[in-house]
């Protein structure tokens, strides 16, 4: 099968033929239809310090996908061939204290699809049946392919009651923009999102942000005055990992405000703990998605009319993956979706149709040379 492989310990990915994965007794084999490029994949593509310490080479990468069930293991009863599914990319042990208590997203022995084990940038992927999510009928395949990052946004945003609240989001990448869409959809009053990338701020505006702020050009204090806010934001979602994002957020929060942190900083972040204590701020770190409460919430959000389609800005065939990665690196995109549905046909053409035609032609020419293919109609 065709797959994107981290073949060498250097920048880039390689489109290669690899063996199809086999389903074990508790597994589900899925024919991949769409995949989406994640920030994690960008780290792997660039081969930065984190990737060098984390990613085994060679390995098929990718973890955001939607596909069709083609085979199930002997012990699997809940899934049937033909079902449209995605997968929870965090594969957990099932036996630790957190797993046994239903807090599987906190399993200390988590193995990541496309990070620690073979991923989804391929024609087929095999994952445990416990990690499969069956989508509702009629779901748009492109939207289904981004349920993984959509889950990060949902988990982060819905930690707190947002109805009628003023929400500040720092970081207008795809997950931050999705968080803005969620906040507005569930009834937040003002949804303000910050960044220094005007392209992504415009994207966040399309999906629900009521005010975008380029912090290199204006301050949150001025924006609060413009909106008639006098006490600060009620809910904060830090999605960027930018060095000053959390401290700026804390400076603009109301007393008793609540903050979720999903962004991963590359270095130390300065925090004024006096403000955290005296203003009684609640700060909570967020990791992944709750299994599977977050997935139920995502499905309900989509079914109730949440429109994330503007988040997907580029759609490419799988073999143009380099264009997708380089576009993301430029910062001029939202989510980029790769279509894998042509992979099997291309492989079929390349491995069977063309060679058979060539072989036939060669044999025909040889037959003519030997006089085996004479035209005897005039005899």
Short description:
With 379 residues, this protein is of the alpha/beta class.
Could you walk me through the main structural features you see in this protein, from its secondary elements to its overall organization?
It is a single chain. By secondary structure, the chain is α/β, with parallel strands linked by helices. The chain has two domains: 2-146 and 308-343, Medium-chain alcohol dehydrogenases, catalytic domain (Quinone Oxidoreductase, Chain A, domain 1); 153-285, Rossmann fold. It has 13 helices and 18 strands. Helix 5 (147-157) packs across helix 6. The chain starts with a strand and ends in a 10-residue tail after the last helix. Mean pLDDT is 92; it is low at 350-365 and 370-379.
